[in-house]
TrEMBL record:
Organism encoding this protein: Spirosoma foliorum
PANTHER family named in the record: DNA REPAIR POLYMERASE UMUC / TRANSFERASE FAMILY MEMBER, PROTEIN UMUC
Matching Gene3D superfamilies: 3.30.70.270, 3.40.1170.60, 5' to 3' exonuclease, C-terminal subdomain, DNA polymerase, Y-family, little finger domain
An MF annotation (GO) of this entry: DNA-directed DNA polymerase activity
Keyword vocabulary terms for this entry: DNA damage, DNA repair, SOS mutagenesis, SOS response
Residue ranges annotated for the UmuC domain, each copy included: 2-188
Statement: the UniProt record of this protein carries the keyword DNA damage: yes
One Pfam family named in its UniProt record: DUF4113
Protein name (Swiss-Prot/TrEMBL): Y-family DNA polymerase
Length: 427
């Protein structure tokens, strides 16, 4: 059996841990630079605030309903997440951290202490609530997909009291009978539309389709999904997370920018962060993709008509994989210069590192001997200095260090658990 433990409205709940006066109040959390809504409490969802909605579109409702607003506080979320995962390892040694707020647990051979899976789920839920003040839902099923279904039901059915167990075939049939196919794990919008056109609207109907038909309609991934719904495990727990296959970021400027120099400055700043992540997972990248976007909501001053839009990207392949910020910046800048057009007001620059290989990968080419080892070591030294003394203590000379580029966090809460000066005081 597999359990899925998922925190309820994780970002909003992290703020409620240290602000019990916010219990029962609508809360929203904003994205980098306070642009969009990225998390909502249950009360905020009931007000109709949508995930991804632009913050300026919600301001009237925020003022009217006294919605509490927070900027993203990733330092706080990361620490609370680490504490939650640490608690879970006390119940099962095999834990797959699936995301910052959810994890799968392998439960075989651990029912001796807890006679039932329901009792084990309640113990997990109670411990996390007592030790972290964090509300979670627990779903248990024979496969990861059925555990996902159970977790969803645990959150929406009050009679489950936060824990849903799909142990018998009758339990599974009842759970899948009315479960919408579009809410299944791994079913996207296009696949859901395709299934509905064929008259398949519930997970129960999808489970009983023909194998050859589902393979043709949704490839082998669809076939795995159907087998998981039948109780055949096709997605094993990944206790040791594999390195990421790509690293991506697309921060906004906070205001529109028309000139190339400022865009290159922002590119250097954000690419330095991405390269730090690349070296942290001990990888080299073989290609870098950059793109530029204008603001789709912008109106032309004066006449109020929609402003002209421009969005394009380019991928630059490196002559050899490297993790040196100095080398990658050179190729990324050439890409931005190639796609930049005058006359547009840009809102975002995007960066994606792909073709990732292990850090010890070396391949001598016809025209190159490999990456410059001195530059790689220099970047590693910069990482150590910046980790000890703070971001950008050592930085590229081409980086103008515009204070506008870092995240805009007007509604930032204290880092209660990671900064001495932010620790709560009892008087």
């Amino acid at each position: 059996m597999v359990a899925l433990v998922d925190a309820n409205s994780f970002y909003a709940s992290c703020h409620q841990i240290f602000r019990p006066d916010l219990e029962g109040k609508p809360i929203i959390v904003l994205s980098n630079r306070d642009g969009n809504v990225v998390a909502r409490s249950k009360e905020a969802k009931e007000l109709g605030i949508k995930m991804g909605q632009a913050f300026f579109e919600t301001k009237e409702l925020v003022n009217e309903k006294q919605v509490v607003v927070f900027s993203s506080n990733y330092e706080l979320y990361g620490d609370i997440s680490a504490r939650m995962m640490s608690v879970l390892t006390q119940f099962a040694p095999d834990v797959e951290v699936y995301s910052i707020d959810e994890a799968f647990l392998q439960l075989e051979d651990y029912t001796g202490v807890y006679p039932t899976y329901k009792g084990l789920g309640q113990a997990i839920r109670t411990s996390i609530r007592q030790w972290l003040r964090l509300p979670v839902g627990v779903g248990v099923g024979p496969t990861k997909t059925l555990a996902k279904v159970a977790n969803r039901l645990a959150k929406i059915k009050p009679e489950c009291h936060g824990v849903c167990v799909l142990e018998t075939q009758a339990d599974i049939d009842e759970a899948l009978w009315g479960f919408p196919v579009e809410e299944l794990w791994g079913v996207g919008g296009r696949s859901a539309s395709k299934l509905k056109r064929e008259g398949i609207r519930t997970a129960y109907q999808l489970r009983d389709v023909n194998d050859d038909w589902i393979r043709g309609a949704m490839t082998v991934n669809g076939l795995r999904l159907v087998h998981e719904l039948r109780g055949l495990s096709c997605k094993l727990l990944e206790v040791n997370q594999p390195p990421r296959k790509s690293i991506c970021t697309e921060p906004g400027f906070g205001k529109v920018i028309p000139d190339l120099d400022n865009i290159l400055d922002a590119l250097t700043t954000h690419l330095s962060r991405v390269c730090e992540k690349l070296r942290k997972q001990e990888s080299l990248c073989g290609a870098v993709t950059v793109w530029l976007r204008t603001d789709p909501h912008r109106r032309t001053p004066g006449n109020g008509l929609p402003a002209k839009q421009y969005s394009t990207s380019v991928t630059v392949r490196l002559p050899h994989p490297t993790s040196s910020t100095l080398e990658i910046i050179r190729y990324a800048e050439s890409g931005v210069k190639a796609i930049f057009k005058f006359g547009y007001n840009y809102l975002r620059v995007g960066i994606m590192l792909t073709d990732l290989v292990p850090a010890d990968y070396r391949q001598v080419g016809v025209f190159t001997k490999g990456p410059d080892e001195r530059l790689i070591r220099l970047s590693q030294v910069m990482d150590k200095v910046n980790k000890r003394y703070g971001h950008d203590t050592l930085r590229m000379a081409s980086q103008m260090y515009n204070p506008e580029w870092p995240m805009k966090q007007k509604y930032l809460s204290p880092r209660y658990t990671t900064r001495w000066e932010d620790i709560l005081e009892v008087k």
